[in-house]
């Protein structure tokens, strides 16, 4: 399975790293996304009812399709981060990180003792279901399983430098939708104040020497590409675009609209009229 650090090497080489979100909860959807050229998928356990067993099967599908599986847990709680690490996530997105202390707690939950508090078990998927070489596995897991801080509140933006410099934070993920809502701008992720706040996150990540992942939810490909270009000029090389539900809803809405708007041909009218 590809690791999160391999994704970062792609970005460092000048390659735009492209991922998306998966909320549907079907390995078949991951198969489809894997054939479409994405580099990674964030499996969303926060805004869905996905069970860990489903997430584990989706992570297997990611591995089978060359995708890096990243799990967004529902909260900054040790047992949720533990489960994501055990099922084989290459990285764990921890939401609502607004302080340095919260970031430190997330890192501790993803690391084994003595430096962390992750519960230890040699019979989990990330250990190949069993490992007799515990020390080697633990060291590899602590090194390779990345912790990504999702910063999505005004408080988090104010503390972004302190968050980005926490040892063990591998990347910062911007949360433009939550940020827009929290700032009183509804769903206007392109409001100048929201964009300025995200730009602060970009600069904080740059100063800390960690990458920033920028989500873009525009359904239209051309609009998405334009927004990507804006952030690329600011040094961002890792993006998520759309999501499986967004792709499906957008395509079906346009498809049905075209079917209803299309006028039948003379031959078709004659057939229907008998």
Which keywords apply here?
274 residues, alpha/beta, TIM Barrel, 8-stranded parallel barrel, 13 helices, 8 strands, 49% helix
Largest sheet: 8 strands, parallel, barrel
Strand order of the largest sheet: 1-2-3-4-5-6-7-8
- Round the Cα radius of gyration to an integer and report it: 21 Å
Global outline: globular
Percentage of residues in helical conformation = 40-55%
The third-level CATH topology is TIM Barrel
The total of helices stands at 13
Distance between the termini: 59 Å
**Structural class determined from secondary elements:** alpha/beta
CATH architecture: Alpha-Beta Barrel
Query: What's the structural domain tally?
Result: 1
Structural description of this entry:
The chain has 274 residues and is an alpha/beta fold. It has one domain (4-273): Phosphoenolpyruvate-binding domains (TIM Barrel). The chain contains 13 helices and eight strands. The protein has an eight-stranded parallel beta barrel with strand order 1-2-3-4-5-6-7-8, surrounded by eight helices. α2 (27-35) links the parallel β1 and β2 (40-44). α2 (27-35) runs parallel beside α3 and α4 packs across α5. The N and C termini lie far apart (59 Å). The mean pLDDT is 94.
Question: In short, what is this structure?
Answer:
The protein is built from 13 helices and eight strands. It is of the alpha/beta class.
What is the topology?
Blueprint lengths: L3 H9 L4 E6 L4 H9 L4 E5 L7 H13 L3 E5 L5 H9 L4 E4 L5 H11 L23 H11 L1 E6 L2 H5 L1 H5 L4 E6 L1 H7 L9 H17 L3 E5 L4 H12 L5 E4 L2 H18 L4 H8 L1
Parallel strand pairs: 1-2, 1-8, 2-3, 3-4, 4-5, 5-6, 6-7, 7-8
Helix pairs in contact: 2-3, 4-5
């Amino acid at each position: 399975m590809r690791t999160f650090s391999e994704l970062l090497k792609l970005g460092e080489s000048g390659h735009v790293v492209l991922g998306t979100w998966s909320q549907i909860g079907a390995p078949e959807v991951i198969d489809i996304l894997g054939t479409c050229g994405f580099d990674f998928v964030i499996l969303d356990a926060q805004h869905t009812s996905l069970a860990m067993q489903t997430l584990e099967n989706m992570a297997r599908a990611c591995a089978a399709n060359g995708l890096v599986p990243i799990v967004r847990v529902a909260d900054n709680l040790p047992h949720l981060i533990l489960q994501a690490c055990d099922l084989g996530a290459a990285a764990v997105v921890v939401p609502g990180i607004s302080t340095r202390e919260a970031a430190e707690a997330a890192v501790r939950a993803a690391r084994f003792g003595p430096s962390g508090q992750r519960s230890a078990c040699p019979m989990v998927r990330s250990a190949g279901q069993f490992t007799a070489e515990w020390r080697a596995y633990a060291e590899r897991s602590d090194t390779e399983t990345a912790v990504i801080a999702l910063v999505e509140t005004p408080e988090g933006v104010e503390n972004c430098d302190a968050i980005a410099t926490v040892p063990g934070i591998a990347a910062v993920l911007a949360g433009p939708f939550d940020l827009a809502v929290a700032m009183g701008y509804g769903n206007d992720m392109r409001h100048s104040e929201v964009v300025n706040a995200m730009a602060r996150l970009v600069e904080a990540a740059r100063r800390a020497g960690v990458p920033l992942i920028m989500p873009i939810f525009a359904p239209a490909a051309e609009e998405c590409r334009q927004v990507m270009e804006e952030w690329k000029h600011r040094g961002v090389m890792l993006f998520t675009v759309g999501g499986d539900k967004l792709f499906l809803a957008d395509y079906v809405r346009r498809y049905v609209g075209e079917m209803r708007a299309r006028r039948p041909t003379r031959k078709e009218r004659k057939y229907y009229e008998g």
